[in-house]
TrEMBL record:
Cellular compartments per GO CC: cell outer membrane
Gene3D superfamilies found in the cross-reference section: Outer membrane protein transport protein (OMPP1/FadL/TodX)
Signal sequence, renumbered to the chain: 1-21
Keyword field: Cell outer membrane, Membrane, Signal, Transmembrane, Transmembrane beta strand
InterPro entries referenced in this protein's UniProt entry, alphabetically: OMPP1/FadL/TodX (IPR005017)
MF annotations from Gene Ontology: long-chain fatty acid transporting porin activity
Coiled coil: none
Protein name: Outer membrane protein transport protein (OMPP1/FadL/TodX)
Primary localization class, coarse: membrane
Subcellular location: Cell outer membrane
Record flagged with keyword S-adenosyl-L-methionine: no
Membrane topology recorded in Swiss-Prot or TrEMBL: Multi-pass membrane protein
Lineage: Bacteria, Pseudomonadati, Bacteroidota, Bacteroidia, Bacteroidales
Family, similarity comment: Belongs to the OmpP1/FadL family.
């Protein structure tokens, strides 16, 4: 009956999820210009403080400022199946059927994530040769994910309870189980970037800088009210076994009292033996009771690290070429745990939480004076970024992204743009994926406009959405010495609306 493995979230020590595509732990949507055209790695603009820092050197001398606010909504869906081959033909063969699963034994677990306000800004001051930049944004995580019905990771443990109860004589002809669970996680990587450009000549510029990353993670959750049908009645298992344990304890007390009063040695020995048996039974039931006790988690994680960044930009004719490299950021996050009934988040423990390095290459071509084509390529060094338990080794390859965009100045002061992005994750057989933290390969589309609203100011508006692929994971495991077969189908949705203002002074 032991349910020691029934923890809130074994995967909580890894990333919550990113807002948008990028490396496994990063966000690339740091400006509205990106949302509306995507392929910004070879573009020259103030948003280049993040996407093409060397290219910012080719903006006119003076001060350039960009402010952005994004509104992000996501859903995360896991359709999980569980079968016990040894129990085929019994009501316990597909346990999820006993608590909301469909006819095929598959149950849906759905979480929602939102970021009502995702801010970022970029500032650049250009001189004749030198330029200096400052940027801020949430470059990793940034969302709040809530699963109001729990996750498959721990419901699989609970789903076996009716079969285990029946094996020990506590079953029912109509087995059912229930549990109330709640999981809320949030993760923020606040990135403050500083750097400088040097314009070697009218065609070539270079960049050097660094980003200071501060990580803040917060996880809260509970598992309460584990219940099952016993002899035709739903019973809270903690209370049920507690009541039975108390009854045996009372019998043990009564038997010991009778032993104390007995004058016949044989009677005394018999009563003492009964008292020991009753107490042993009570101790066993109390131990079992604790397996079904309500469990809570309240843990905050913090850490920091520095990302060195270098870049280069080359202009020739109607072409612009650019590249930049972000080094892998090495750092740990430390647990500040107020309560942890799971035993997985010991206070003060440090966990590896590196950010992957990034190689970005981009190009822009002016087809006409008012028409530009853009392209970009991202390569994230995910397998070099340390994670808890060396989870990165489960990846089959690093993340790759392919981006394309177009900008059309339909008239002076009005620019329409659109773009697309293909993100490919090296997920292999899916061993890397967990309930709370998962990604799948995707296609993204963005569109929007840039409108001149003042002599030195432009308004950016954009809508961005991502179509995620479904990823099927099949694996075997053993739960309480019971061999089970598991299936998980992962998918997500992502929608972003953004507004920003660019100012030149």
């Amino acid at each position: 009956m032991k349910l020691k493995s029934l923890t809130l979230m074994l995967a909580l020590s890894v990333s919550a999820t990113s807002i948008k595509a990028g490396g496994l732990l990063t966000n690339t949507n740091q400006s509205i210009a990106f949302l509306r055209s995507l392929a910004r790695d070879g573009a020259i603009g103030i948003d280049g403080v993040y996407s093409n820092p060397a290219g910012v050197a080719f903006l006119p001398m003076g001060l350039h400022l960009s402010l952005s606010v994004q509104n992000v909504y996501q859903t995360r869906t896991i359709n999980s199946g569980l079968t016990i081959p040894a129990l085929q033909g019994s009501p316990f063969y597909q346990p999820f059927k006993l608590n909301g699963g469909n006819d095929n034994g598959v149950k849906e677990f759905k979480g929602k994530a939102s970021v009502p306000i995702l801010p970022s800004f970029q500032i650049a001051k250009n001189y004749e040769k030198w330029g200096f930049q400052l940027g801020f944004g949430i470059v990793g995580g940034g969302g709040k994910a809530t699963f109001n019905s729990g996750l498959p990771t721990f419901e699989r443990q609970i789903a076996l309870i009716p079969a285990l109860l029946a094996k020990q004589g506590f079953g029912s002809t109509t087995p059912v189980y229930s549990v109330s669970s709640y999981i809320h996680g949030q993760q923020y990587d606040f990135g403050l970037q500083l750097g400088a450009t040097y314009k070697i000549n009218e065609n070539l510029a270079v960049y050097g800088g660094a980003r200071f990353n501060y990580i803040y993670n917060k996880y809260e959750g509970n598992i309460i009210g584990i219940s099952a049908n016993i002899n035709g009645q739903m019973e809270n298992l903690y209370d049920y076994f507690g009541t039975k344990a108390n009854a045996l304890t009372q019998l043990a007390i009564q038997s010991q009292q009778m032993a104390n009063q007995a004058t016949n040695p044989a009677d005394k020995a018999r009563y003492e033996g009964a008292a020991k048996q009753y107490q042993a039974g009570a101790d066993k039931l109390n131990k079992t009771k604790e397996d079904f006790a309500d469990k809570y988690l309240d843990c905050t994680q913090r850490g920091w690290g520095i990302t060195p960044i270098i870049g280069i930009d080359y202009k020739t004719g109607r072409w612009n070429f650019a590249a930049h490299y972000e080094f892998t950021t090495k750092f740990n996050i430390e647990n500040n745990t107020k309560r942890d009934d799971t035993g997985q988040f010991k206070d003060g423990v440090n966990t590896p939480n590196d950010l992957p390095g990034l190689l970005s290459i981009g190009a822009q071509y002016e087809v006409l004076d008012n028409l530009r084509l853009l392209a970009g390529y991202h390569y994230y060094f995910d397998k070099d970024a340390r994670m808890a338990n060396n989870k990165q080794r489960l990846l089959s390859s690093n993340t790759r992204e392919y981006l394309a965009g177009i900008e059309w100045d339909v008239k002076p002061g009005v620019t329409l743009s659109a773009g697309a992005q293909r993100t490919k994750y090296g997920l292999g057989d899916g061993s890397y994926l967990s309930d709370l933290s998962f990604v799948t390969s995707s296609y993204s589309i963005g569109l929007g406009a840039k409108i001149k609203v003042a002599k030195n100011a432009h308004l950016n508006i954009a809508y961005f959405f991502t179509n995620y692929e479904k990823f099927d994971k099949t694996y075997e495991s053993t739960i309480k010495e019971v061999k089970v077969q598991n299936t998980d189908q992962f998918t997500r949705t992502n929608k972003v609306f953004g507004v920003g203002l660019d100012i030149d002074l």
